[in-house]
């Protein structure tokens, strides 16, 4: 058994969480640059917690410029074991209505202008992201949502777009009708891929704010309407997060799905050919295997 440390990455509308004991905002140094903000640490129900506002307090980072690698590295460096993303999303399904939450289990990555890996020249690694979210952590998120009285859907495909503009009508229809996506957002990729490289369990909670632009009765997506829904969603998101420590417990077994062993056979570069500078930067992310 090892100690659980739950990290929450709060998306648009969630810039802090309440109720932590010994709460403290810590600045974590990372060789991958500055994280989005300091990280709020503390404990809840005897379980260690860390909270990072993805866009920074005051919403300063755009989806394309969120420092995804520094964020995941900083959480790993703090000793986090489990990462829960809580994000604002548009919906491609009538039944996934604004105010509902979706526990995402698949992604389509359409982002094009972001650093997507900790690895590269001097240390090449290939991890599997066939199942990019952790079912154990997703179970806890689903239960927490139900206990908090949230209308929650289990399973859904999240289309990650580059943004910052919303989709055209043609894109919205294609993602929904041809590609089978259920929700759309701008931030869960490459975050989920990087969490897997860092051997962290990752779950994604999509908080629906709108019907994007495909819905004949709802017109096009509009940020003012999103913000109205976002406020209610943020309170529900905090209620969900508050229930997670009791569900996950202060100690954990190895992940039954292997998220915490993703790098076991992933690194292909022979030890004598590895770049010492890159290896030094990988000390937290890949420390278990290098
Ligand atoms: C507020 S509308 C668009 C914005 O909100 C989402 O951010 P996050 O995933 O961090 O909640 C979406 O991905 C866009 O970045
Ligand atoms: N319709 C939408 N498209 C992309 N990101 C979003 N975040 C919230 N709603 C969204």
Automatic annotation (TrEMBL):
Biological processes annotated in GO: L-methionine salvage from methylthioadenosine; purine ribonucleoside salvage
Cellular component, GO annotation: cytosol
Binding site for substrate: 186, 210-212
Keywords (A to Z) from UniProt: Glycosyltransferase, Purine salvage, Transferase
Site (Important for substrate specificity): 167, 223
Pathway connected to this protein: Amino-acid biosynthesis; L-methionine biosynthesis via salvage pathway; S-methyl-5-thio-alpha-D-ribose 1-phosphate from S-methyl-5'-thioadenosine (phosphorylase route): step 1/1
Molecular-function annotations in GO: S-methyl-5-thioadenosine phosphorylase activity
Gene3D superfamilies to which the protein is assigned, alphabetical: Nucleoside phosphorylase domain
Class of enzymatic activity (EC top level): transferase
UniProt-annotated binding residues for phosphate: 12, 54-55, 87-88, 187
Annotated signal sequence range: none
Annotated catalysed reactions: S-methyl-5'-thioadenosine + phosphate = 5-(methylsulfanyl)-alpha-D-ribose 1-phosphate + adenine
This enzyme's EC code(s): 2.4.2.28
Nucleoside phosphorylase domain sequence ranges: 5-242
Subunit structure: Homohexamer. Dimer of a homotrimer.
Alphabetized NCBIfam families for the sequence: MTAP (TIGR01694), PRK08931.1 (NF006492)
Its biological purpose: Catalyzes the reversible phosphorylation of S-methyl-5'-thioadenosine (MTA) to adenine and 5-methylthioribose-1-phosphate. Involved in the breakdown of MTA, a major by-product of polyamine biosynthesis. Responsible for the first step in the methionine salvage pathway after MTA has been generated from S-adenosylmethionine. Has broad substrate specificity with 6-aminopurine nucleosides as preferred substrates.
Family, similarity comment: Belongs to the PNP/MTAP phosphorylase family. MTAP subfamily.
Protein name: S-methyl-5'-thioadenosine phosphorylase
Lineage: Bacteria, Pseudomonadati, Pseudomonadota, Alphaproteobacteria, Rhodobacterales
């Amino acid at each position: 058994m090892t100690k659980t440390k739950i990290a929450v990455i709060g998306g648009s509308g969630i810039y802090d969480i309440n109720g932590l004991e010994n709460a403290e905002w810590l600045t974590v140094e990372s060789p991958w640059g500055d994280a989005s903000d300091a990280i709020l640490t503390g404990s809840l129900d005897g379980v260690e917690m860390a909270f990072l506002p993805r866009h920074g307090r005051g919403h300063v980072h755009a989806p394309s410029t969120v420092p995804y690698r520094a964020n995941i590295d900083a959480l790993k460096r703090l000793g986090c074991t489990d990462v829960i993303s809580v994000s604002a999303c548009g919906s491609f399904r009538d039944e996934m209505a604004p105010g509902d939450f979706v526990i995402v289990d698949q992604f389509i990555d359409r982002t094009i202008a972001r650093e997507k890996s900790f690895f590269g020249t001097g240390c090449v690694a290939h991890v599997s992201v066939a199942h990019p979210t952790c079912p154990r952590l997703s179970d806890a998120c689903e239960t927490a949502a139900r206990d908090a009285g949230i209308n929650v859907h289990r399973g859904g495909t999240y289309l990650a777009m580059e943004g910052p503009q919303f989709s055209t009508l043609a894109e919205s229809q294609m993602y929904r009708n041809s590609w089978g996506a259920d929700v759309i957002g701008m931030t869960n990729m490459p975050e989920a891929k990087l969490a897997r490289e860092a051997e962290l369990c990752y779950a994604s909670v999509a908080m629906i704010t709108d019907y994007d632009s495909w819905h004949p009765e709802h017109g096009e997506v509009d940020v003012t309407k999103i913000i109205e829904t976002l406020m209610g969603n943020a309170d529900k998101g905090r209620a969900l997060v508050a229930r997670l420590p009791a569900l996950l417990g202060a100690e954990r077994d190895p992940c039954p799905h292997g998220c915490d062993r993703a790098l076991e056979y992933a690194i292909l570069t022979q030890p004598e050919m590895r770049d010492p500078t890159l290896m030094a930067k990988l000390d937290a992310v890949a420390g278990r295997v290098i």
